[in-house]
Amino acid sequence: MAGLIRMSLAEIAQAVGGRLHALPHGVDPRSSVDGAVQTDSREITPGGIFFAKRGEVTDGHLFAAAAARQGAALLIVEHPVEVALPQILVSDTVVALGALAHRVVEAVRSRGRLKVVAVTGSNGKTTTKNLLAQILARTGTVVAPQASFNNSVGAPLTALRITEDTDFLVAEMGASHIGDISRLVAMEHPDVGIVLKVGMAHAGEFGGIEQTQKAKSEMVTDLTPADVAVLNADDPRVAAMADLTRASVRWFGRDSAAQTRAVDVTSGIDGSRFTLDLSDGRRAPVHLHVLGEHHVMNAVAAAAACDALGTPLDDIVAGIQSITRAERWRMEVLGGGRGVTIINDAYNASPESMAAALKTLARVTPPEGRSVAVLGMMNELGEYSDEEHDRIGLLAVRLGIDK
Fold first, then answer.
1. What ranges make up the beta strands (E) of 82-127?
2. How far, in Å, are 16, 43, 187, 324 from residue 35 at the CA level?
């Protein structure tokens, strides 16, 4: 795993707004570290930096000694701990983590090489992130989130893996509250910001879909005229964000108004086939192997962003076609015996993703076959929960799901 770009203890303390805590034998503020940054002591590698984050269940300060045994070279803490390692004292380790990530991103960007591509939306973020990483890796070195590292801890941990040789940082930005995405955008300042769609995911926490729209629009409100906003032309709530940004806008979708669009779409158990149509007349056939026609929009969004960064069309197509699954437990086709096919989409659930999964199930079930949907509860819908669960039940009936 890549470590932090080499920085002195004094530089790190200044970046995180902290104070270097002197050990009994003293600490040289000019000494430097370049190990990987972690908030989990079990993941520390020799020379690493451990941020003692407070959690809902436990407190990272309790694991500072364990981090030292793993080979940590520096601790970022909110109070001194009885560990014989250099320590930087901060008021909030999560805020400090974001501040260090911001400093590192800006330092690498200042050398004129790094481009940051960020994606948000109620659904499809992780799939699009994976597509972006595969496409961009064909023309440069890429750092992208592991799993769904898309919050105030995961995003900076990803950013802190970049080095002077990194060409592209792919950032996935999730939110549960107004202001979450704005803080991530300020931390990484995307050159290209993608908004996939506005749906009911987390609507209960946001307080309604209008508030969800407001939260997702934070992706583009602080972009500069030199940046690019990649917006979904098929989603009116996303399309309205064009009025909120100073960035140039690239439209993606299936509608004829989109500059980057998918036409002639067909889908089946082996994924979806479509023609990728770019605004300048370039066209290419694409076979997206990920199950579910709804993932075509994620592929087109990734294509639009990479086209804005100058990626050749052949590399865009090859990158899209190299993906065989969205992510573990997302529309994952598993083997089954005696003619049974199992599709695992159990990672998470929202009304939009569950509706898309049911439509895919209905579409890929052969006429002589039988479809069975095993459904769990959709959380974080608040006052909309009963209505949205009823809507999914009705959809299952209308689609003819057998059981």
1. 87-89, 115-120
2. 17, 12, 21, 33
Q: How confident is the model at residue 189 (pLDDT cuts 50, 70, 90)?
A: very high
Residue 205's pLDDT band (boundaries 50, 70, 90)?
low
Strands 271-278 and 115-120: unpaired
Altogether, the residues listed in the chain come to a count of 403
Which positions ≥6 away from 234 have C-beta within 8 Å? 253, 254, 255, 258, 297
pLDDT higher than threshold 90 for residue 18:
yes
Note the pLDDT tens digit of each residue in 45-67.
Answer: 999 999 999 888 889 999 999 99
Through-space distance between the first and last CA atoms of the chain, rounded to whole angstroms: 46
H helix and E strand count, the chain: 13, 18
Indicate the residue type of 361. Answer: L
pLDDT, average across residues 166-189: 93
* Among the ranges given (69-73, 233-237, 268-272), the one the predictor scored with the smallest mean pLDDT: 268-272
Question: Two tokens at 340?
Answer: 């049974």
Mean pLDDT score, 277-305: 94
- Kindly write down the DSSP assignment for every residue of 240-273, as one continuous string: GGGGG-SSEEEEEESSTT-SEEEEEEEEETTEEE
Percent of the chain residues past pLDDT 70, beyond the cut: 96
**Which residue is it, tokens 């200042």?**
110
Residue 4's pLDDT is 81
Q: In 137-208, which residue ranges form alpha helices assigned H by DSSP?
A: 154-159, 180-188, 203-206
Cα dihedral 78/89/37/191 (nearest 10) = 100
CB contact set of 115 (below 8 Å; sequence gap of 6+): 167, 168, 169, 191, 192, 309
CB atoms within 10 A of CB 402: 12
Among residues 335, 13, 309, 356, the alpha carbon closest in space to that of 135 is found at 309
Token couple for 172: 């996935």
Q: Max alpha carbon distance in the chain (Å)?
A: 78
- Where helices occur in 335-384 by DSSP H, the ranges are 351-364
How open is the CA angle 56-61-62, to the nearest 5 degrees?
A: 85
Q: Which residues are 149's β-sheet partners?
A: none
Mean pLDDT confidence for 102-116: 94
DSSP 28: -
**Bridge partners (DSSP) listed for residue 143:** 169
Q: Is 202 left (phi over 0), alpha (psi -120 to 50) or beta?
A: left
Sign of torsion, CA 349 350 351 353? negative
